[in-house]
């Protein structure tokens, strides 16, 4: 089933049916909501089954170690969510919380300990690190067999090469592609645009789309006339960090939108004083796109589900369990 194709047909039928199309007919063309929260729950259930099968047959419990440096509130929230998610599927979680003024050497020591710890199958260093640390040094120190974030340069290099396979695919881009697959969106031969080129989201997302045989454009802060490029896309992955940047008028009718952005904006009516919005203006996009992920409840929960999946894959590989 091809959401893009069927939607375009429906849209065009509406669009060309006459000059007197009513406002309600336009509103009827509302995008399908891609429910990342529900899909993530399904995936967690699948992982839980595998984790207990492995525990019973091989006596192995997958373990994930998370290193958090400093006390950024958002990082602390994400780490707490990851820990909770581990518990729901039966994965062991270990956590070390180092003070903001720790040295790089202390972080490296903890990584070395987890590298050698046979109960740990995945190591995640929560980003961003404090500015006095060299992120490259730290990420390079994670043993590639335990690099469940997929951030090691050898993993990224393999992801970029034809005929090579990375040990781990980065969680957020993997979650984006998983959503497209589970919603029956065909990628092969489609025009895809990735907005953003960061090492952790945009760049690996573009590589994955290319591996799936999409024709990929990458839009970044130096792109001239980004709207023109975005308007050609059948599939848009937005990972910019700019609230509501992508407007409805930039979107090709029937496009599928994966909104990775998680941006806090002031909201006096919320008890927290802020709310989360994506990089895409949802209210406008929902009228033009054929399918769209909401924020929250879209890519975010998928990122965590993919982290659990990578940890399970790692434990299976280390223990040669099939
Ligand atoms: N849902 C999830 O699980 C996750 C969500 N996120 C969210 O995704 C968003 C992006 O994160 P991340 O990739 O880490 O962010 P970065 O800040 O590392 O990268 C942002 C990218 O967007 C580009 N960019 C910035 N402004 C513009 C603009 N006006 N027009 C076009 N491109 C622009 C930058 O271009 P240039 O390279 O030229 O500087 C850069 O490549 C954030 O909102 C973040 O919170 C992040 C990780 C996981
Ligand atoms: N080494 C490393 N790996 C990461 O994967 C990593 C990281 N560092 N640093 C920060 C980003 C961000 N990130 C998110 C994960 C889940 C949600 C998530 O679950 N969001 C919920 C909302 C959460 C809320 O309400 O606060 C949602 O979108 O529905 C969001 C963001 C992982 N990251």
From TrEMBL:
**Which Gene Ontology BP annotations are present?**
one-carbon metabolic process; photorespiration
Q: List UniProt keywords, sorted A-Z.
A: Hydrolase, Multifunctional enzyme, NADP, One-carbon metabolism, Oxidoreductase, Photorespiration, Signal
- Can you name a GO cellular component term? cytoplasm
Tell me the superkingdom of the source: Eukaryota
**Stretches assigned to the Tetrahydrofolate dehydrogenase/cyclohydrolase catalytic domain:** 34-149
User: Which stretches are annotated as coiled coil?
Assistant: none
Q: Domain named Tetrahydrofolate dehydrogenase/cyclohydrolase NAD(P)-binding: which ranges?
A: 170-317
Tell me which InterPro entries the record gives: Aminoacid_DH-like_N_sf (IPR046346), NAD(P)-bd_dom_sf (IPR036291), THF_DH/CycHdrlase (IPR000672), THF_DH/CycHdrlase_cat_dom (IPR020630), THF_DH/CycHdrlase_CS (IPR020867), THF_DH/CycHdrlase_NAD-bd_dom (IPR020631)
Q: Name one GO molecular function term.
A: methenyltetrahydrofolate cyclohydrolase activity
Q: What is catalyzed by this enzyme?
A: (6R)-5,10-methenyltetrahydrofolate + H2O = (6R)-10-formyltetrahydrofolate + H(+); (6R)-5,10-methylene-5,6,7,8-tetrahydrofolate + NADP(+) = (6R)-5,10-methenyltetrahydrofolate + NADPH
- Annotated pathway, please? One-carbon metabolism; tetrahydrofolate interconversion
What does this gene product do? Catalyzes the oxidation of 5,10-methylenetetrahydrofolate to 5,10-methenyltetrahydrofolate and then the hydrolysis of 5,10-methenyltetrahydrofolate to 10-formyltetrahydrofolate.
Q: Which family does it belong to?
A: Belongs to the tetrahydrofolate dehydrogenase/cyclohydrolase family.
- Quaternary organization: Homodimer.
| Protein name per Swiss-Prot or TrEMBL | Methylenetetrahydrofolate dehydrogenase
Q: Which gene encodes it?
A: 11426920
């Amino acid at each position: 089933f091809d959401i893009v194709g069927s939607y375009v047909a429906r849209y065009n039928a509406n669009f060309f049916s006459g000059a007197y199309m009513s406002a309600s007919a336009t509103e009827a063309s509302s995008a399908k909501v891609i429910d990342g929260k529900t899909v993530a729950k399904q995936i967690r259930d699948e992982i839980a089954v595998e984790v207990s099968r492995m525990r019973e047959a091989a006596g192995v419990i997958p373990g994930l170690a998370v290193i958090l440096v400093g006390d950024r509130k958002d990082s602390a929230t994400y780490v707490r969510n990851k820990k909770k998610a581990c518990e729901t599927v039966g994965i062991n979680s270990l956590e070390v919380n180092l003070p903001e003024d720790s040295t790089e050497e202390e972080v490296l020591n903890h990584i070395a300990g987890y590298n050698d710890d046979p109960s740990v199958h995945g190591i995640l260093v929560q980003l961003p690190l404090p500015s006095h640390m060299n992120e490259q040094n730290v990420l390079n120190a994670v043993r590639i067999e335990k690099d469940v974030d997929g951030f090691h340069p050898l993993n990224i290099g393999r992801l970029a090469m034809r005929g090579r396979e990375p040990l781990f695919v980065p969680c957020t881009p993997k979650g984006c592609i998983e959503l497209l697959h589970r919603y029956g969106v065909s990628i092969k031969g489609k025009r895809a645009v990735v907005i953003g080129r960061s090492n952790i989201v945009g760049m690996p997302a573009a590589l994955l789309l290319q591996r799936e045989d999409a024709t990929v454009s990458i839009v970044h802060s130096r792109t001239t006339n980004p709207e023109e490029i975005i308007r050609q896309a059948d599939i848009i992955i937005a990972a910019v960090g700019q609230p509501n940047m992508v407007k409805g008028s930039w979107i090709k009718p029937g496009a599928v939108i994966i909104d990775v952005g998680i941006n806090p904006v002031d909201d006096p009516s919320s008890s927290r004083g802020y709310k989360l919005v994506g990089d895409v203006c949802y209210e406008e996009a929902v009228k033009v796109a054929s399918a769209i992920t909401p924020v929250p409840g879209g890519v975010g929960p998928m990122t965590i589900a993919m982290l659990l999946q990578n940890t399970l894959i790692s434990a299976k590989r280390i223990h040669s369990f099939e």
